[in-house]
Amino acid sequence: MHVIAIGGSDAGISAALRARELDPTSRVSVVVADAYPNFSICGIPYYVSGEVGHWRNLAHRTHADLQATGMDLHLDTLATHIDVDGHRLQVRGPDQNLTWLDYDALVVGTGAVPVRPPIAGLDDLGPDDGVHLLHTMGDTFALTASLERRSPRTALIVGAGYVGLEMAEGLTARGIAVTQVEMLPQVLPTVDPELGALVRAELDRHGVDVHTRTTVRRIARGESGGLHVIGEGPDRQPVAWDVDLVLVVVGVRPDTELLVAAGATTGPRGAVNVRPDMATGLAEVWAAGDCVTTAHRLLGTTYLPLGTTAHKQGRVAGENAVGGSATYAGSLGTQVVKVFDLVAARTGLREHEAVAAGFTPVTTQTAPDDHKAYYPGASPITIRVTGDQHTGRLLGAQLVGARSTETAKRVDTYATALFHAMTVDGLAQLDLSYTPPLGSPWDAVQIAAQAWVAEHQPRPTH
After folding, report:
1. What CATH homologous superfamily does 341-456 map to?
2. How many CB atoms lie within 10 A of CB 359?
3. CB within 10 Å: which end of the chain, N or C, has fewer?
């Protein structure tokens, strides 16, 4: 049996590894568009900052590690056409020649590509001019080359989502003065404004010049060899900056051209529709990762490009490609980001999302300490718990705390409770660990849950 996986990132490699694990007799080939299979795209900001010493350290597994599993790697090879009826994949290799590869099962993990906002001059300027998008290892090398060649003192980042915030920290760590421009009213718009304000304060504290409700309209070469950026601020007033470097990171869109041309259908955000077993509806073709729709345990079908999701979906697709019957259990959108010394995390639904899903959500905000106050170093975690007013079901949680507060792991407690459809009160009854330097008899996640119950489901009186 010959399984081909397209894509060298999370979904494609996970599928290939799972197929080899379950059926060591199968032949597994991976078609990778560049020369960097199984590299952590999520780690790019930390290589740019200098915290990751060498780009090769971003590899989850080396080329040799992957080959040792028995898979065949076709690097610098672009998949150009799927012949579904003929069970063939057309590829363009490093020599630019087109050839066909026969398969018994195909897993497509083409991922996503960066969104290019409608900024005048963006299509005319590139890395040689100091204008960068950031998504691939190639983009990374172009950016680091630009940093070394231009030695920029100032940079402007378009976008204040996860990657934009990580890059603001990374460039600041290199001694670059950063201006951050976000068209929405807050930075980190995936959390509620009350928590987004805490993240903005952290950016301000580290010298990042933040502009929200502001849109970049044009990028042009400056008179002194730098870049002149023209924007529109709140109330449509004109704003402008002269900087040495521009980084555009405003999100991604699914890369679906290959599958759509083969006859696949699309859903939210143009992502390819897949069933719970990651089947596309095309014979013997599965797909996974950022190019496909996501089954959300509370929302239904949506689009949620996350590395954790891609790994899980790829594993399901790889298992089924060799005859298995696995299904993807669904996402909760659990995410976390470090911004300087602060950590922001969320899982499940915010109120407006819960309303759209048919719930009656109410939210309580508290700020319990991460451990007993008498032990030195206690720090508050701002927690917003959302639950259904009528049923008490937990619907979501958002947390912001200092890096020392284990916020990233505490959000996982909420995610586990959400996965099992627990009530907020049920969460408060969990048997969690305790020692004064690390927690309290009632953990911070439980104190926040108790506050929600007290506010929205008061105990009956007799």
Report:
1. FAD/NAD-linked reductase, C-terminal dimerisation domain (3.30.390.30)
2. 21
3. C
- pLDDT tens by residue, 439-449: 999 999 999 99
Looking at residue 276, its pLDDT comes to 97
Q: Which candidate, 251, 246, 136, places its Cα nearest to that of 188?
A: 251
Phi, psi for 215 (deg, rounded to 5): -120, 130
Q: Over the Cα atoms of the chain, what is R_g?
A: 24
- CATH of the domain spanning 127-248: 3.50.50.60
Which sign, positive or negative, has the C-alpha torsion 295, 301, 307, 308? negative
Q: Decide which of 3.40.640.10, 3.30.420.40, 3.50.50.60, 3.40.630.180 is the CATH code for 2-37+57-113+252-321.
A: 3.50.50.60
Residue 461 has pLDDT above 60, yes or no: no
pLDDT, tens digit, 9 for 90 and up, residues 186-238: 999 999 999 999 999 999 999 999 999 999 999 999 887 899 999 999 989 99
Indicate the pTM of the whole model: 0.93
pLDDT score at 53: 87
> For residue 261, with 0-12 CB atoms within 10 Å meaning exposed, 13-18 middle and 19 or more buried, which class applies?
exposed
Tell me: pLDDT of 460 over 70.
Answer: no
Is residue 364 helix, strand or coil?
strand
Separation of alpha carbons 87 and 324, rounded Å: 19
